Amino acid sequence: MKEKIIAPSLLAADFANLQRDIETVNNSEAQWFHIDIMDGVFVPNISFGMPVLKAIQKHAKKPLDVHLMIVDPDRYIKDFAALGADHLTVHFEACTHLHRTLQAIKAEGMKAGVAINPHTNVDLLKDVIKDIDIVLIMSVNPGFGGQSFIEHTYNKVRRLKEMILNQNAETLIEIDGGVTNKNALELTKAGADVLVAGSFVFKAENQLETIKDLKNLANS
Ligand SMILES: O=C(CO)[C@H](O)[C@H](O)COP(=O)(O)O
To answer: What GO cellular component entries does it have (predicted)?
Structure first.
C-alpha cells in the first residue's frame, strides 16, 4: 500500500510565528505543506498572497501544495511556479476551460490539482481524470479553517476512487476540511491518499505528536 500523506494547512498556523510553525512541519513526519490562497471573491475570506508564499518557500523543506481559492486562476499560474509551488490546485468551479488550465500548470513543471466544493459531483471529472494529478475534495465549504467535516464526503471519496481505478489513472485523492483523528482512518479506507489538517494540528498542544498519530492512523 502507498504511504498516506499528511499535509498540515498553514492557514491554521500562528502568522506571528510563521517561521516557528514552518519548522515544526519541517521537523515532523508530515510530507507536504498545504497552503491556502484566498481572494475574497471566490470565497468570502482573504488569506495571504505572493509575498507570504515567498517567505514560506524560503524556510519550507517539503513540497508546497498550493490550493487556489481564487477566480481566474490562469492569470497566476506562472507566478506560482516562479514562487516554488510544487502542486497547484485550482477549483473546478472557477475554471471555464479546465483542461487548458491543467495543461498550463503542467507546462510550468507543477503537479496539477482540481478542487471540488461540497456541492460538486465527482462525476463531472470523468472526462479529465487522467489529466489530473490530484483531486482535492473539500469536506467543508471553502474559506475558513476550523469547520465541521461534512459526512457525505466518504461517498464522494468512494465514487472518485472507483472512477480512478476504472480508468487506470494515477490521480491522488486529497481531503481538505475538518480532518481529525475521528475521520482519518475512514477516509483513507474509502480511498483518500492525502489528508490536509489545519486546526487539528496547529491548535494541538503537541503538534509533532499529533501529526505522527494522524499519520499512523491514516496508514493503519
Ligand atoms: O481549505 C481550507 C479552508 O478553505 C483549509 O485548508 C481547511 O479548512 C483546513 O482547515 P481545518 O483543518 O482547520 O478544517
So the answer is: cytoplasm
Q: Rounded to whole angstroms, how far apart are CA atoms 59 and 65?
A: 15
* Active-site residue, selected from the candidate residues 21, 65, 133, 176: 176
Pocket of ligand 1 (CB under 6 A): 9, 11-12, 34, 36, 67, 140, 142-147, 176-179, 196-200
Angle between helices 18-26 and 50-59 (to 10 degrees): 40
The full set of domains in the chain, from first to last, is 5-218 (3.20.20.70)
Residue 109 is assigned to a ligand binding site: no
- Interval 1-44: pLDDT, tens: 799 999 999 999 999 999 999 999 999 999 999 999 999 999 99
For residue 95, the tally of other CB atoms under 10 A from its CB is: 17
pTM score, two decimals?
Answer: 0.97
CA atoms within 13 A on the CB side of 116: 20
